[in-house]
Amino acid sequence: MALRTAEEYKAGLRDNRNVFILGQKVPDVTEDPYIKVGVETAAFDFMMGHDPVMSKITVMKDPETGEPVSTYFEVPDYPESVQKRHELIINACYFAEGALPFVKDVGSDIINGLTAVAKIMGNPSYIRRINDYRWHCARKDLSIAGLVTDVKGDRSKGPSEQKTPDYYLRVVDESADEIVVSGAKAHITAGAYVDEFLVIPTRNMSEAEGDYAVAFAIPANTKGITQMCRPNFRYEDKYHFPTPTPKRGHIESLVVFDNVRVPKERVFILREWQFAQYVAYAFSAFHRYTAVTYKIPILEYMTGLGLLAAEANGIEKASHVRERFIEMIKYTETTKALAKAAYSSPENFGGSGLYVASRLNSNMAKLHFASNFHEFVRNIQDLAGGLLVTQPTYQDWKHKELRPYLEKYMGGGGNFTAEERLKLMSMLHHIVASDFAGWHEVCTIHAEGSFAAQKMMLFAEAPMNMYKDRAKEVVGLNV
Ligand SMILES: Cc1cc2nc3c(=O)[nH]c(=O)nc-3n(C[C@H](O)[C@H](O)[C@H](O)COP(=O)(O)OP(=O)(O)OC[C@H]3O[C@@H](n4cnc5c(N)ncnc54)[C@H](O)[C@@H]3O)c2cc1C
Fold first, then answer.
1. What is the whole-number distance in angstroms between the Cα of residue 197 and the centre of ligand 1?
2. Can you tell me which atom of ligand 1 is nearest the CA of 106?
3. pLDDT at residue 32 in the model
4. What pLDDT shows up at residue 343?
5. Within 98-222, where are the H helices?
6. Whose CA is closest to 107, among 134, 71, 75, 76?
């Protein structure tokens, strides 16, 4: 099968999947006013393959058949593949006007993590299955969500100590050809509008928790799966000033598995509890770098919005404003530099022959990004002023009696007309002062792992002994 078009991708989503939003069953996710935001953002992935410029980056030859397939499915078995992936993701974001299409990134990061772990385990059956699955997705040009985060209940307790055994997804039955699973995975990006679910454990497991040590793939419309989405913002946005293309973003779901049957050919880990944490770790090693890469275009245009807000208010030459500029530029460029440092030092993950970006630098980049984002937003809010939350809406601008007042009173600095200033403030509202902006702040902290997850990886990867040896040399210690 050739690379799909955006229309073919959307047609594939009309498959009776069991998706709910606002307490209502969604008959067609491609037409729901909220989920459509995500569908149209994801659709860019399928446009890239047919774009003459982008396809040079996003399309490769299937090594077996020679047919064109998405570069996301490339096996990263050479060091330069890491920088290639950086170029793929960052250009995908520029192509999608600042938002990542995000329907092959997480999935292929998990495929890479599972491939590395299967090799490290030396399990030929798992190696074959995950390899078959990689090329199944590539040849059918499928979109995939990554289902990692369990609902977890009491965080201080392991899966087997919880009030209910289903706070972590687990195997509840098994036959020769299939397993049956129950449980729920939370916050799943794009779950409502992907073809496939790829499920892995989220944490370490004890010997008594073997049933929870399971990784598998399943089509998103499989019987027994129910998804609940919450609205983010509407595709048809009457509130903000229109932009050249509709706004982009994604929708998450809570995905419930109620006795779902999974064929064993799609099971990649089963009861190897000793490897549960390593699977989660391997996925993070690949995925955290994806995360920092796609942040870069977002930070670039947000910095631009802050600079323009100052110009629109005529304050760009004031010294305290230039201090704000320096803070924003420092933040954005440090994140970029750390991302570059990460892809410039590829590592052979666990000796598996698969390459990841430097884990130390990837985690530094993500931690830097997440730790300073709120201050970055505060700087933009400060420059833009109170209009961010009080400005009249686009509907007022369109009203024939109100518009002359807005034209008269809403002008600002430099070359900004009232319309241009309001347009800018309208976008700024969306990005730093709306419900979506609140979502973005939380996303920054928790998506792709919370602060603690990055700090754990820093401890694991930082050259602690090297630091101490340097100090011992200086002091003359023999301890
Ligand atoms: C917008 C968004 C998109 C996401 N997309 C996906 C996705 O596509 N797929 C997916 O699988 N996940 C996804 N996630 C989930 C994300 O990885 C988690 O939110 C993150 O790992 C934190 O888990 P949590 O939300 O359960 O919070 P918690 O783990 O409950 O964290 C809350 C606080 O509790 C602390 N804490 C947690 N456990 C312990 C403990 N044992 N002891 C002490 N302190 C503890 C944490 O450090 C943190 O400070 C997404 C999240 C967001 C916000």
1. 19
2. 8
3. 98
4. 95
5. 105-121, 124-140
6. 134
Secondary structure element (H or E) that encloses residue 348, with its range:
strand 347-348
Nearest one of 383, 403, 378 to 393, comparing CA atoms: 403
Ligand 1 centre to CA of 422 (Å) is 37
Distance of CA 194 to the CA centre of its chain: 14
The span from the CA of 387 to the CA of 428, in Å, is: 10
Distance 456 CA to ligand 1 centre (A): 14
Residue 329 host element (H or E): helix 319-343
447: CA distance to ligand 1 center in Å?
7
Closest C-alpha among 51, 225, 21, 84 to residue 29? 21
* Beta pairing, strands 144-147 & 196-199: parallel
Q: Give the distance (Å) from ligand 1 centre to CA of residue 202.
A: 10
What is d(CA 271, CA 67) in angstroms, rounded to the nearest whole number?
A: 37
Give, for ligand 1, the residue of 147, 155, 227, 448 to mutate: max count of ligand atoms closer than 8 Å to Cβ.
155
Q: Please state which CATH class domain 278-469 belongs to.
A: mainly alpha
Q: Which two tokens stand for residue 404?
A: 């002359």
Surface-to-core class of residue 18, CB atoms within 10 Å of its CB (0-12 exposed, 13-18 middle, 19+ buried) = middle
How, if at all, do strands 252-263 and 225-229 pair?
antiparallel
Q: What is the pLDDT of residue 2?
A: 82
C-alpha 430: how far from chain center: 19
pLDDT on residue 1:
63
Give the helix/strand (H/E) hosting 61.
strand 59-61
Q: How many CB atoms lie within 10 A of CB 218?
A: 21
Residues (pLDDT < 70) of the chain are: 1
Give the residue extent of every domain in the chain: 6-273, 278-469
- Paired sense of beta strands 214-219 and 267-270, if any: antiparallel
**Residue in the block written with tokens 């006007």:** 97
Query: DSSP character for 401?
Result: T
Residue nearest (by alpha carbon) to ligand 1 atom 47: 452
In angstroms, the CA 334 to CA 337 distance is: 5
Please, are residues 124 and 174 in contact by the beta-carbon 8 Å criterion?
A: no
- Dihedral sign, Cα of residue 270, residue 273, residue 276, residue 279: negative
Q: How many helices (H) and strands (E) does the chain have?
A: 16, 14
* pLDDT value of residue 230: 93
Atom of ligand 1 nearest to the CA of 448: 17
User: 6-273 sits in which CATH class?
Assistant: mainly beta
Ligand 1, atom 3, lies closest to the CA of 447
User: Roughly how many angstroms between the first and final C-alpha of the chain, as a whole number?
Assistant: 63
Q: Which residues line ligand 1 (CB under 6 A)?
A: 106, 146-149, 152, 155-156, 185, 187-189, 252, 442-443, 446-447, 449-450, 452
Q: Let me know if the fold of 6-273 is the same as that of 278-469.
A: no
What span, in angstroms and rounded, lies between the C-alpha atoms of 71 and 407? 49
